[in-house]
Amino acid sequence: MCYWVGTKKVREEMLRRLQQEPNDEIAQLFYKTFVGKAELPFKEYYVAIGKARPEISVLLNDKEMGLQFRNMIWGLPWSYTNPKTGKSYSREMINSTCEKIFFVHRDLVYSKRCVIPLDGYYEFFHFSNEVYPHFMKPKEGVFFAAGVWDESVDKETGEIVASFSIITTPPNPLARKLHNNPKAPNGPRMLLILPEEKVLEYLNPNARKADLEKLFAPYDQEKMEAYPTVRFLRKEFTGKLNTEEVRKKVEYPELFFA
Asked: Fewer CB under 10 Å: which end of the chain, C or N?
């Protein structure tokens, strides 16, 4: 669920935003970082798969450095030791649920929040023992997915690595229909997509728990759409994941009855 995202058209949209509104703070920063001075390479994907730990461009608001873009690994290391039993747990969090964010990431959610600009993401609809990928996209602009991030030391290289986890929320009706995997441990979910006007509010370093909880809501389904695509996880698409092939709309006649 929500482990496949796209960023391919984000650059185009950010430049369009800047032309329409030269004072757009996020679009200005995007241009400065990835186009003007080209301080960083923007990470463009037709589909980035979370389990492959891709590097993705994210937006954050550092208390000292201010608003900035950074390239980070998708997949946040997490560990926990039960104080009663002494048993330790650890895993990589590709996504994190909003219901548990104040426990699982109780420090990061206050100090290290980020936003990931996407041109869409993929959900896999289950029907009659088959799986059908669907591309979920904004009707206009881009999605701004909320996340948390942190830095850790790579045990092999000794380098400091920045990584992030995307927050998920209960679904809107469209996402509920498409994210119908009966084996999903948390049931139907969707990415926590922020309304454009709420992005800087989410990144506000002084935001309190109550301020953030108000933003933990399903995205308006009237502002998004979805269509079925090719089954790009099959072997014949090896080496073609970052091509237009994965975005092709495919009509599956059997889904007319789903």
From this structure: C
Whether 104 is in a domain gets the answer yes
Is the Cβ–Cβ distance between 244 and 46 less than 8 Å?
A: yes
* Residue 84, pLDDT score: 79
CA distances for 88 relative to 22, 78, 79, angstroms? 50, 11, 7
Which burial class, exposed, middle or buried, applies to 142 when counting CB atoms under 10 A from its CB (0-12, 13-18, 19+)? buried
35 CA to centre of own chain: 22
Do the Cβ atoms of 168 and 185 come closer than 8 Å? Answer: no
Residue 200 has pLDDT above 90, yes or no: yes
Q: What CATH number corresponds to the domain at position 154?
A: 3.90.1680.10
Would you call 113 exposed, middle or buried from its count of C-beta atoms within 10 A (0-12, 13-18, 19+)? Answer: buried
* DSSP-derived 3-state class of residue 251: coil
Instruction: With a cut of 90, say whether residue 221 has pLDDT above it.
Output: yes
Q: Please report the pLDDT score of residue 257 as a whole number.
A: 60
What is the residue whose two structure tokens read 């045990």? Answer: 155
Looking at the predicted structure, is the pLDDT value of residue 28 above 80?
yes
Three-state SS at 152: strand
Adjacent-strand bridge partners of 173: none
Domain span at residue 72 reads 4-78+88-257
Q: What is the mean pLDDT of residues 172-186?
A: 89
CA atoms within 13 Å, Cβ hemisphere of 235: 0
What does the alpha-carbon distance between residue 87 and residue 95 come to, in Å, rounded to a whole number?
A: 23
Inside any domain, residue 83: no
Average pLDDT (74-95) is 85
Positive or negative CA dihedral for 194, 199, 203, 209?
Answer: negative
| pTM score | 0.93
